[in-house]
Write a structure and sequence with these properties.
It is a single chain. The chain is built from 22 helices and two strands. The protein is mainly alpha-helical. The protein has helices spanning 2-12, 15-33, 39-50, 55-72, 74-80, 92-100, 104-137, 142-159, 164-178, 204-223, 236-247, 251-265, 271-286, 298-322, 328-339, 348-351, 353-382, 389-408, 411-429, 435-458, 464-467, 469-497; strands spanning 181-182, 189-190.
Length: 498
């Protein structure tokens, strides 16, 4: 172990490697700041450059840029209510409300420091419990993934502000949108109305950008929304102090959210966005002040932003141990490893132990770098609030169009974004939450695919959905996700009546 660690430290001392990490950090921050451009897209665009790199610089570049992109998505989410990446959508309302109350610095400081802390916890977990947790992750079958997706859908309904009925309507609409395209079982078109563009379904990224970004542009233009006076210039240590003030009494919540994010990240196909949503939901269910969630809760921001960065480290656990990608980013990374002649699996810990330990250390370094570089990105982003609304809003709309078009180089996705923007605007005017629509789009295919796979495997029997041990635990969690909020609401009504 010590020999591998010493060799890893020697590998990381290369000036070329440090240069790659700095360049990819700046690149990741830029991608995260532009709505619609995801960490996955940034990784995919970086792949051609890895052809000319050694394995470690290539892997380090991907690790650094993904960590930076996930955090940077919090900056437009906080300042203008446009999530830069899908994982920021879980707590976008809370971060934005903090900004509206003149607490933009505190919100951004919290995002940066919690992202870094969650990422470091994810990296340490990767170092210490990779084989054990990977073994647990392999026990998840289609039955368990079905209930995991249902749990994610349940949390978004129970944690959304406003009426539960309206949240359910929004969720059902999102699930309907997820069924558009080719039927995953029968292979026939559904709800495409003869359009070839709809055969691939509704892409959730343009939908997310439209629901949060375009709707906010329309609302701001109509209502002339103004922010409470913000302190646009702030020092590095001032940011750290502000973050510590918000975190010091919530360290247990921070640890729980990071560990939960890491565990969910280790489940193949889950990813940081699902980790953020579930952590957000668990945070609200266990919070002493659940009524503050969705209205500018610092605790809500802490739970979501620590979980999505911890999930990055968690996704590497099945990737390194079994060669199973935890998310889309690690799927690309596995391709890079194989291109370099490296085969992930149990033997990689014996044959390339120095490389594995170097990956561990890169994770830690990337998240340590996130704080100073995040400070520079946050301070630069704050300048957006100086720009007059008549200039800022069209610029945001332009970035939304560019980000949506870049997904598939399709004007159709731009049209999806605009339609979703109008839908989001009218929904918010009617006090219908839009977040459940996004999560319905993300998790709908996962629910359908795993349900149909399970039914086909069992010949139509549904018993294994509740008789398998892990499935049974998840069923209990789903039941708690629905009953605890309803019970709490009933108690509050009784106390008010008395």
């Amino acid at each position: 172990m010590m020999a591998n660690l010493a060799a890893a430290i020697q590998l990381l001392s290369s000036p070329y490697l440090i240069f790659i990490m700095v360049i990819t950090a700046v690149y990741g921050l830029f991608v995260g700041l532009v709505p619609g451009l995801t960490a996955t897209m940034a990784t995919a665009l970086f792949v051609p450059f890895t052809f000319f790199m050694d394995p470690l610089p290539a892997l380090a570049g991907v690790i650094v840029l993904s960590a930076m992109a996930i955090f940077a998505g919090d900056i437009p989410a906080t300042l203008v209510r446009v999530p830069g990446t899908p994982s920021s959508s879980a707590y976008v309302e809370d971060a934005y409300q903090l900004c509206s109350r003149g607490m933009a610095v505190r919100a951004l400081a919290l995002c940066a420091c919690c992202s870094a802390t969650g990422g470091i916890i994810g990296a340490l977990s990767l170092m210490l419990i990779a084989p054990t947790l990977a073994q647990f992750a392999t026990r998840f079958t289609s039955f368990e993934y079905f209930w995991l997706a249902i749990l994610g859908l349940s949390t978004t309904v129970t944690v959304s502000k406003g009426s539960t009925v309206k949240s359910c309507i929004a969720l059902l609409l999102g699930l309907f949108f997820s069924t558009i395209g080719i039927d995953i079982t029968l292979g026939i078109p559904r709800f495409t109305f003869g359009s070839s563009e709809l055969l691939g379904g509704v892409n959730f990224i343009p939908a997310m950008v439209g629901l949060f970004g375009v709707s906010e542009v329309i609302r701001t233009t109509e209502e002339s929304v103004s922010f409470t006076a913000q302190k646009l210039s702030f020092g590095f240590f001032e940011m750290l102090k502000s973050a510590w003030t918000a975190m010091k009494n919530r360290l247990g919540i921070l640890l729980r959210s990071a560990v939960l994010g890491m565990v969910i990240g280790a489940l193949p196909g889950a990813g940081g966005d699902i980790a953020a949503w579930i952590s957000y939901g668990v945070g609200k269910l266990s919070s002493k002040h659940p009524e503050e969630y969705g209205k500018g809760s610092e605790e809500a921001v802490l739970t979501g932003t620590s979980a999505n960065n911890a999930a990055l480290g968690g996704a590497w656990i099945p990737a390194l141990v079994f060669g199973i990608p935890g998310d889309s980013i690690t799927a690309i990374l596995l391709g890079i490893l194989m291109m370099k002649g490296l085969r992930p699996g149990p033997l990689i810990f014996e044959r390339q132990g120095d490389l594995v330990y170097a990956i561990y250390l890169v994770f830690i370094i990337a998240n340590v770098l996130l704080i100073p570089l995040g400070y520079l990105a946050a301070r630069s982003g704050m300048q957006m609030l100086k720009v007059p609304k008549g200039i800022l809003m069209p610029a945001i709309l332009l970035f939304c169009c560019v980000g949506s078009y870049a997904i598939n180089n399709s004007l159709f996705d731009v049209g999806v974004m605009l339609v979703m923007g109008l839908l989001g605007y009218f929904f918010e005017k009617s006090d219908v939450p839009v977040a459940p629509i996004v999560l319905g789009l993300i998790l709908g295919p996962m629910v359908e695919r795993n349900f149909m796979m399970s039914v086909i495997k069992t010949g139509g029997s549904l018993s294994q959905f509740v008789t398998r041990p892990i499935s049974a635990v998840l069923v209990i969690c789903v039941a708690c996700a629905w009953t605890i909020p309803l019970w709490s609401a009933r108690r509050r009504r009784k106390s008010v009546a008395s």
